[in-house]
Amino acid sequence: MDSVFLAEIPWPEAERRIAAGAPVFLPLGATEQHGHHMALGVDVVIPTAIAERAARAVGGLVAPTVPYGNRSQPRTGGGPAFAGTLNLTAHTFALIVRDIICELYRQKAHKIVVINGHYENIAPSVEGIELALDHLGRDRVGDLTILRMDHWDLVQPQTIDRIFPDGYPGIELEHASVIETSLMMALRPELVDLSKALHDGPAQFKPYDRYPRPMEEVPPSGVLSMTEGSSAEKGEWLLADCHERIVEIIHVEFGKGKTR
Amino acid sequence: MDSVFLAEIPWPEAERRIAAGAPVFLPLGATEQHGHHMALGVDVVIPTAIAERAARAVGGLVAPTVPYGNRSQPRTGGGPAFAGTLNLTAHTFALIVRDIICELYRQKAHKIVVINGHYENIAPSVEGIELALDHLGRDRVGDLTILRMDHWDLVQPQTIDRIFPDGYPGIELEHASVIETSLMMALRPELVDLSKALHDGPAQFKPYDRYPRPMEEVPPSGVLSMTEGSSAEKGEWLLADCHERIVEIIHVEFGKGKTR
Amino acid sequence: MDSVFLAEIPWPEAERRIAAGAPVFLPLGATEQHGHHMALGVDVVIPTAIAERAARAVGGLVAPTVPYGNRSQPRTGGGPAFAGTLNLTAHTFALIVRDIICELYRQKAHKIVVINGHYENIAPSVEGIELALDHLGRDRVGDLTILRMDHWDLVQPQTIDRIFPDGYPGIELEHASVIETSLMMALRPELVDLSKALHDGPAQFKPYDRYPRPMEEVPPSGVLSMTEGSSAEKGEWLLADCHERIVEIIHVEFGKGKTR
Amino acid sequence: MDSVFLAEIPWPEAERRIAAGAPVFLPLGATEQHGHHMALGVDVVIPTAIAERAARAVGGLVAPTVPYGNRSQPRTGGGPAFAGTLNLTAHTFALIVRDIICELYRQKAHKIVVINGHYENIAPSVEGIELALDHLGRDRVGDLTILRMDHWDLVQPQTIDRIFPDGYPGIELEHASVIETSLMMALRPELVDLSKALHDGPAQFKPYDRYPRPMEEVPPSGVLSMTEGSSAEKGEWLLADCHERIVEIIHVEFGKGKTR
Amino acid sequence: MDSVFLAEIPWPEAERRIAAGAPVFLPLGATEQHGHHMALGVDVVIPTAIAERAARAVGGLVAPTVPYGNRSQPRTGGGPAFAGTLNLTAHTFALIVRDIICELYRQKAHKIVVINGHYENIAPSVEGIELALDHLGRDRVGDLTILRMDHWDLVQPQTIDRIFPDGYPGIELEHASVIETSLMMALRPELVDLSKALHDGPAQFKPYDRYPRPMEEVPPSGVLSMTEGSSAEKGEWLLADCHERIVEIIHVEFGKGKTR
Amino acid sequence: MDSVFLAEIPWPEAERRIAAGAPVFLPLGATEQHGHHMALGVDVVIPTAIAERAARAVGGLVAPTVPYGNRSQPRTGGGPAFAGTLNLTAHTFALIVRDIICELYRQKAHKIVVINGHYENIAPSVEGIELALDHLGRDRVGDLTILRMDHWDLVQPQTIDRIFPDGYPGIELEHASVIETSLMMALRPELVDLSKALHDGPAQFKPYDRYPRPMEEVPPSGVLSMTEGSSAEKGEWLLADCHERIVEIIHVEFGKGKTR
After folding, report:
1. Does domain A6-167+241-254 have CATH number 3.40.50.10310?
2. Which residue among C34, C108, D246, F54 is least enclosed by CB atoms within 10 Å?
3. Are the Cβ atoms of F95 and E100 closer than 8 angstroms?
């Protein structure tokens, strides 16, 4: 029971590590279409893996990944029309984050690192943290620090340049595309089958949303940009970037050295 | 990608199976203390495993397990005082169930089986289903059937008698005790270390709840009853009972034969 | 105006008694079918009467009974299909309990005893208390004690044995059956007409819930178990048990002697 | 079991009367200070009694009175500073009304008469009805009629003139004053003790509200206007007016004759 | 940038004035029909103008007017059947007021004056303030004062007598009638066209509400009382009354002299 | 009363135009710091002006601008630390949008164009629209089209290149910077005073959020990027781009020609 996953250790061990100052990582995922070539769990796998590696390096703990995310939107995730995309409302999602943050604080875990892996979770994860602070009382939580990060923001610009020599389409369009595909090839290659990729992108979105009619601009495959050029090697570059950056951030924010 | 887990298949495969009539299992778990001898993820492991086996047998799919449960209470789960017990409020939990049921229905998954593994989830999972029906409109969902079951209710009385020759303490007190320990020994033995069990139970609860002072009646270990006599073999008896019963229920409720 | 009911005394008298340390009882009821032989108000009558007797004995006050309860479910109360069963959602019910607890606390009533009379109220009454504590701030209510009890849990095992010489079906199935019928015969005999009882039970429930189709396992009368053997005398045994136990609990938790 | 109170009849009788077209009355009350000379339950007693008489006359049913009301305000009810005033938030109160209306509709009670007895309930009872209509779907409830009335609006101007020969202070100031005191003397004289009245009114309110400091303009007794001149006879005049008016309204809105 | 409107000054100027003790006015409006002869924005124009004048006189600031109000009701505003009446639910409206009050407090604006211009906003603006106090903690906001006023309550009785020599119909019926029309003629004459007035009032309302059928008692024009006799001069009388009263209230409540 | 603003026309005119097919524009703003050199109302002014011009061109109507926005965040708007930034919670903001959309639909305005002017409103405006569709029933609103656009997305790439010859910092950093400053110089020059600009940017943000400690990376002025090079002329380029694009979008989505 030497795991960094909270789910895999008994409570006295959790208590010991929290008392020793272990940062607690909270990965936020989603169950969402990621093209014909990848499984629906991509947004769970990636932030969980990033959190696991980081927790190992800094003596942290990883709370269970929230496996359902805020509503997928056509311009950033393909939207709800794809089978298997199971959305929560923003309010539900924010309440989950609020409740977990409050519980972690109550249990004296005062170094919290939220690692998000789903674009549409950005806003409601911010809201969930703000609601937790409202709930706990901002003037009464002086010793609490919550860091919230989206894994794609942790990648160095030069890595992006190496991966996209012809130009980066931007993270919104990167859904189920080279970044996520490469990360999955590095982490869970059995959940990727590039031979199934349709290559029907990139999406040419209009600069607005339309409801309730579906956006016909979403490529039929659900891949918003492209999958060509994805590789496990590129996935390792991305993971290395994320990892180095997180470890550096933890040291800057929470003090140097492993806490365990 | 032959998995029964929705998270491990791409969306076209999810679409195909749902169209073919696959029942979708939704396991409901929790992150909660289970004594010194078991990991915090017990309530996630058990209903997920039961759902996986059942889905394999009947051609079903398993949606991601909800890994956070409704507030643990002293008399049924030890309560919030134990490190690592991360509770959701009942309203948040019910909204999660509501949202997922609505999404499954919208995606034409009209045979839904909710498998619960955490005592305090019973009431808010009922509420979540009721809220979903309110939301969808009870008069407009004629083709929807939702079955909700708590795994301990699926065990045959004679199996309980075999496991508890000296009398069954009742499911409320069975927290982290022989049933859950045996199931975990069968499913994930590496998450059980019986040598760590404190044997400080069984709890002698008063017939009422007291707030906000903690209930000193909870045994220090968090085990409400006892762990003695737990074994992987008994875990297999319990799993076999659950499995047979679920398969039978699926056939009765949704028609005969595997759907895949 | 010597009543123990808050509704029957003027505010200065309420103020005086609260200042003198009177525990405040909050009965939680429901408006729900109780068979052909009993009125819809059974779950209001019983906890109100128990609270009244207890308040008289210990110098307490009785706040108005909440007359609408959380959703009746088929396996424990017959469910919503019976005329006159008027359900609240769990969220509404929990908010009522939260609001009243907060108001009592604000008014310096810091000894609160919640007496529940409806099975489906158990979980949302717990939630309402927890929400009140969240709202008030658990670290700021050191002098507050809330006791929450379900009246059937206060009965001694030997009394149950006396009433059910052939074995106790369990409280879930006891809906509108011997316990409630006997209590009503003792308390409000004019609301009971045993000659109308259908004797179509006991219910043979499957070990799971099914939505939205009604559970055809519910006996047509709405009585889940049986009414035979009910008597006012047994009702008095039950009331006496409840009464003794509550008085004892009040003395243990709040100190001995009448407070008035 | 010939009662008009839903709580006092069994479900088959409720079913029979609803099927026969019985209007269902829903009284809305409060637990609120009403001076030194009246009990805290005034706002429950009055609308319940009015509903009972009306139901007897028109073959209706009376659902349980909601005994907790929306927050008392200083300028209309004295405010929360008085012991025993137990307020609900407006949202909770509106949800109660919403839930009950929805349940009545679901049970085919499509003639609903809401009788309000507490000033601050006006707005949230409107909101509760509106929320119920939003919930049920306004275009799908063609056969539903909900009437909402505040009992003081049912009194004839000439009766007001008879009771207040020196001028009517207006309903906001009539809290715990001549109207309510007279009604209580007619209905529940044992809950009135005019010798305890302080005669410290009428309140001279400023034309605005101030928060959170208490309004020192509220007379210490809690009586906003005056009690002098209250009598059971005047109470009977008021009850007679209400009664005639309601019966007339029922006939106009729901058709002539008793429905039973 | 010498404006009193928060929207028209930069943040350092807002900071300076708040630090100097400027009261902050929060006008509450609505978008609601006001007859054939007036624009839909009447309830925004009037409280904004009153707040502006008052803020100029006392060195205050005016926060942006909330331009959407709580649900219009037939008996007080004509109801939702008129085009352009855009209602918020009471809960949404109360949350807006709660959020803004909390933000003003957080920003050290502790003298807050809520000026309401829409009848149906009364109750939910009270609720919004109460929710803010619940949220902030009543025992922690000793230096906060919130005044809440409805502009029509600030008019002197003698002015009402001058304007209505034949008797005042009461504020509920004054919707889109002489008071509001005169105020608009004084403030924004280009938004009034008396030649379009239908003169189909006054409304003869029954003493109860009916849902969901529309109230046919509402005059077709939407004017509940009458417009005859409206004039800019009378509007100035009303504005002068409001102004003098508010300035006096500010001096009484917050100390004398301009704060700027 | 020839205005396009709903607030400036009477209800019969609103009814006429909606019946004639007028699209209704709903501008979404905020009250938020925009540096030393601009007023707090920038996010209200810009989308209102864009909507006004568009409505004039296409025969549309403009509903009142929502003047309070979702919580400002440090990395995109400077955050809550600046005086005058008055935030709503995401839930409140989404409910406002939900309610208004539902009301417009109910009033037969089935061509709705939401024009957003505040970065943090993006997600909750999406959520508000989704909640409205959930509320109305997606299968029952076939004739409803809602377009949602953020004004900065309507600018042509070549215009961005003209304005930012040295490279575009991206919309997140453009807060209170060249785009917004130029737009305000074109629209409301009296609310801009470039001489007050501090030139302390651009912000060098870390790639994550930190709570609750303030982000010291926010430049003291609140300007996230830079103001140099702002001009009314550039503002006109931006407005022209937005205008052309919106008119084109309206024609594509709602059919050609002015509707009035």
Report:
1. yes
2. C108
3. no
Q: Does pLDDT of D37 surpass 50?
A: yes
**Does A83 contact B10 at a Cβ distance shorter than 8 Å?**
no
Question: Residues A126, F209: contact at Cβ < 8 Å?
Answer: yes
Segment D221-230 shows an average pLDDT of: 92
Q: Which chain D positions have a beta carbon within 8 Å of E149's beta carbon?
A: 207-209
CB spacing of A40 vs B7 below 8 angstroms: yes
Q: Which residues of C touch D66 (CB under 8 A)?
A: 67-68
Q: How far is CA D19 from each of CA D3, D60, D247, rounded to the nearest angstrom?
A: 17, 11, 20
Return the active site residues of B. 32, 34, 43, 118, 120, 175, 180
The domain ranges of chain B are 6-167+241-254
* E212 prior amide bond cis, ω within 30: yes
Complex-level ipTM:
0.96
> Which pLDDT value is given to residue F1?
57
The whole-angstrom separation of Cα B260 and Cα D23 is 53
Contact D195, D173 (CB under 8 A): no
Inter-chain contact B91–C91, Cβ cutoff 8 Å?
yes
Residue (of F65, F52, F38) closest to F174 by Cα position: F38
Distance CA B69, CA B32 (A): 8
Distance of CA F2 to the CA centre of its chain: 24
Q: What is the pTM of this model?
A: 0.97
Tens of pLDDT along B22-37? 999 999 999 999 999 9
Instruction: Tell me the backbone φ, ψ of residue E145, rounded to 5 degrees.
Output: -130, 125
DSSP string, chain E: ---SBGGGS-HHHHHHHHHTT--EEEEE--B----TTB-TTHHHHHHHHHHHHHHHHHT-EEPPPB--EE---HHHH--TTSTT-BEEPHHHHHHHHHHHHHHHHHTT--EEEEEE--GGGHHHHHHHHHHHHHHH-GGG-TT-EEEEEEGGGGS-HHHHHHH-TT----GGGGTTSHHHHHHHHHH-GGGB-GGG----------SSEEESS--TTS-TTS-SS--TT--HHHHHHHHHHHHHHHHHHHHHHH-SS---
Instruction: Tell me which residues of F are annotated as active site.
Output: 32, 34, 43, 118, 120, 175, 180
- Interchain contact A/F (3 or more Cβ pairs less than 8 Å): yes
CA distance C193 to D12: 13
- How far apart, in Å, are the Cα atoms of E224 and each of E76, E166, E187? 8, 17, 21
Look at D215 and F150; give whichever has higher pLDDT. Answer: F150
Q: How far is C101 from chain B (nearest CA, A)?
A: 12
CB within 8 Å: B64 and A68? yes
Residue F114 to residue F125: CA distance in whole angstroms: 9
Rounded CA separation C78/C75 (Å): 6
Residues of chain C in contact with residue B144, where contact means CB-CB under 8 angstroms, are 212
At position D220, the amino acid (one-letter code) is P
pLDDT beyond 80 at E259: no
Residues of C whose CB is below 8 A from D120: none
Gap from B174 CA to chain A (nearest CA, Å)? 17
How far F182 CA lies from chain E's nearest CA (Å)? 16
Q: Is A91 a catalytic residue?
A: no
Strands (E), chain B: 24-28, 61-62, 69-70, 87-88, 111-116, 145-150, 209-211
Residues of B in contact with A107 (CB under 8 A): 83-86
Annotated active-site residue in E110, E118, E151, E174:
E118
Helical axes F178-187 vs F42-58, angle rounded to 10°: 60
CB crowding A124-146: b at 16 or more within 10 Å, else e? bbbbbbbbbbebbeeeebeebbb
Cα B250 from Cα B242, distance rounded (Å): 12
Taking only the tens place, the pLDDT of each residue in D239-253 is: 999 999 999 999 999
